[in-house]
Amino acid sequence: MKVSVVYALPERQLWLEVEVPEQATVREAIEFSGIARTFPTLDLSSQKIGVFGKIVAPDARLEPGQRVEIYRPITADPQALRGESGDDE
């Protein structure tokens, strides 16, 4: 079955179509894609993974056509970026 594996850095994005066996897991799709060779700093033990925007476990089973998304860690406080102090004044 065919699925996609995607990952994006600010300077580079990659969307790979991957052929995986029926009942493949998210982890298997990532391994089949070879994306770790392109992005050697990927750390799947700490980065979140999702399918169509919903966080899933690496052992979640895939269905044909699904898109596996590897999310970058958050490096800035979203409230600070919006200029909010977080105080309840």
TrEMBL record:
Coiled coil: none annotated. Pfam families: Ub-RnfH (PF03658). Gene3D superfamilies: RnfH-like. InterPro entries: Mopterin_synth/thiamin_S_b, RnfH, RnfH_sf. NCBIfam families: PRK01777.1. Belongs to the UPF0125 (RnfH) family. This is UPF0125 protein BLL52_1608. It comes from Rhodoferax antarcticus ANT.BR.
